[in-house]
## 1
Amino acid sequence: HRFTKAIVRQPSKSITMGLRADDRGEPDADQFAQDHKTYISALERAGVSVSTYPPLEEFPDSVFVEDAALCFPEGAVILRPGAPSRTGEAEIMHQLLVSYFEDIERIEDDEGYVDGGDILVTEHAVLVGLSERTNQAGFDALKKKIAKWGYEAKAINTPEGVLHFKTDCGLIGPNAVLATYRLSDAECFSGMKIVEVPRGEETAANAICVNDTVLLSAGFPKTEELLRSEGYQITLIPTQQAALVDGGPSCMSLRF
Ligand code: CIR
């Protein structure tokens, strides 16, 4: 399957107030905006047409569009982000996705929580990490909704202390996953090629594969070297600012 489109939202100035598990300082909003442009160019070079939406100051984390929706060729599901400051992003995403999808499902207010960062779509299944942001009720609702398009959702336990399932893994090819040591033995990846992120570079795991290119965070030379030696075509993405608010290449776009 090839992606043809991507949706992104420019970072707001309020990104300085974005949620983070550990405070390692505020991101620099201007630098983040600059890095975001580089990210958009990388997506375009990977062959997708990118729709860029303007910043939403009232939602500091809204640059991380991935958490509010899950997109398939057949349709989209509007998710229900688990952080209270982010719940409102779902409605905004809904309004926007009606111009891309005819078939839209939505996790309703009484159906629990799911963050897109907890969902990894593989060839075999839609893997959903239960986490601080994604609960069993949300998973159950999502599972039902995507079954009609023929997708099977499987629940996974996100490792303790890890924000999202995809904080620790990312798809790097049709049947290949990049994963930290915390996940590399996970049963959910059986039948897939697993590339383990070298120790100390765990942040690099949040990579994405867009058509023939892997978008990888810059600054992780061992991971880069390993992937290149395995024959992957890589574009490096500056994510230092995003990382200060727990973001990476995956969170900043919806691809379909
Ligand atoms: C948050 O805590 O919600 C944001 N600061 C980071 C979201 C990262 N999203 C993702 O990994 N999909």
## 2
Amino acid sequence: NLVQFPVLKGFEFNTYMSEKAKLVNEALESAIPLQEPLKIHEAMRYSLLAGGKRVRPILCLASCELVGGMEVCAMAMASAVEMVHTMSLIHDDLPCMDNDDLRRGKPTNHKVFGEETAVLAGDALLSLAFEHLATRTIGVGPGRVVQAISELGSAVGSQGLVAGQIVDLCSEGQHVDLNKLEYIHVHKTAKLLEAAVVGGALLGGGNSGEVERVRKYARYIGLLFQVVDDILDVTKSSEELGKTAGKDLVSDKATYPKLMGLERAKVFAGELLEKAVEELAYFDAGKAAPLYHLAHYIAYRQN
Ligand code: GRG
């Protein structure tokens, strides 16, 4: 364990997560009705409604409520972020990228619908995300909606997810040092978490000081998410193999445990968690409880 998981009295984290995930799933279900052309909408719905932890949309809703906003103001943003995330998973799984057969416990989109449709389903989810955020946001002035659109756009493009993916692809077979590994993770993972959290605070009416504090929180938990992913890769595969060395210690892929050792990676994760939580000290403790627990959930998750 990194540190003892502190429990805030009166806050039922599991209930919070399942209630929010239910609301997000309902919003996503109604955002993409099964309509003509059937094939593309089936493919979009297949991946979007396939489960997933819904961490990004829940972070968005929690951040909106942290600054005193109503959940409904951030629901379109929460859905848009999950659409972008799902798009990135569909494209990441394609044969020209990671070539994966399974995602969220089901065959990948291209395995079921074919490569052409999977590319188009990703494209359609990406454009729908922005349309949805622009047209379905409720109770927020246009200036803030435009700021949220801009946050999401920069998280996805050539300074965001795409930057992380291209640097990752170009690093294959090369030595990756800690700086480059951090660049890849910040862009592939942390940028979208940042857009979710900052978008939620913007749409919830947060002032610029509040928005910048939650941005820092999001940057720490974004990197934490990936460091924990790398740690889980090692610990899970060593459990599976019944050995002390996991697959990441023997594969080519650079990971935090591989570059700094498992114990130092755990210490680093603990430091990131601590820094994230420090940013929440400025807010009312009751309102900050969901983001506080979400940071711990990311640090201690098992999948
Ligand atoms: C085409 C504009 C465009 C961008 C795509 C393919 C790509 C560029 C980027 C890859 C991004 C990627 C797949 C990053 C990994 C992110 C990550 C940590 C995924 C796992 O997230 P979880 O654990 O998954 O939240 P669930 O299934 O729970 O949602």
## 3
Amino acid sequence: MSHWLIAGASRGIGLELTRQLALRGEQVTASLRAGSRLEALEAALAPAGSRGRLLEFDTRDESAVRAAATQVTEPVDVLVANAGAYGPQRQSSLDMDFPGVLDLLDTNALGPLRVAQAFLPQLRQGQKPRIVFMSSVLGSMALEGTFNLGYRASKAALNKIAQCLADDLKPEGIPVVAMHPGWVRTDMGGPNATLGVEESVDGILRVIDGLTVADTRRYLDYRGQDIDW
Ligand code: NDP
């Protein structure tokens, strides 16, 4: 049994990660924001019994993230920084809602690092600790296309942050990877996405289960295939 921390678990991929991990008998700490829908997450955590726990924080709020971290006194083995947003309507290079995109950058690029920094003491005590930042192929510098520039830029920034954290934690033997979950039918991915959430999460968990320090600084999809930065 390992202890997993899933940040951003109220819906979509984070909720399904929590559900599958609880069913598999892991210890699961799952976070959601104040005011988010609680029922589905409680149901997903139920099979974990006393090994399940809820934390409440918005990843943009450093003091809330740090306060939540003080509630976790035992080691954490895996952090999945999953919380993410798609952002405002106007986010192209020709017409941008700048405050809206600044907020998106806060959530998608800085949020995962805030969570990783806050829980680093617990991760350092974990068995085979691993950090996974939920990125997107849309953050790849190699990918063409211009739609949703704000989202792309936020995930590109997250990718750079993942690389730097990977380099900083390599001497401690803690791998850090950026992950693309596939195009998944969630509120964010929409109904036309190619993958069901169960299939995506099944793949994500296989990849994370196999991660070692040799994988640090990789940008991987849910099948374990490398993506061009
Ligand atoms: P959803 O929109 O279904 O869920 C997003 C989750 O993130 C919710 O739990 C939401 O909480 C939480 N969240 C958003 N902003 C914050 C915040 N500031 N603080 C805390 N929690 C927050 O998205 P998905 O499940 O589809 O996506 C999960 C991750 O995967 C994201 O990082 C996304 O960018 C990435 N991804 C998804 C793809 C897809 O096709 N679905 C493709 C590529 C990447 P709340 O309920 O409170 O809003």
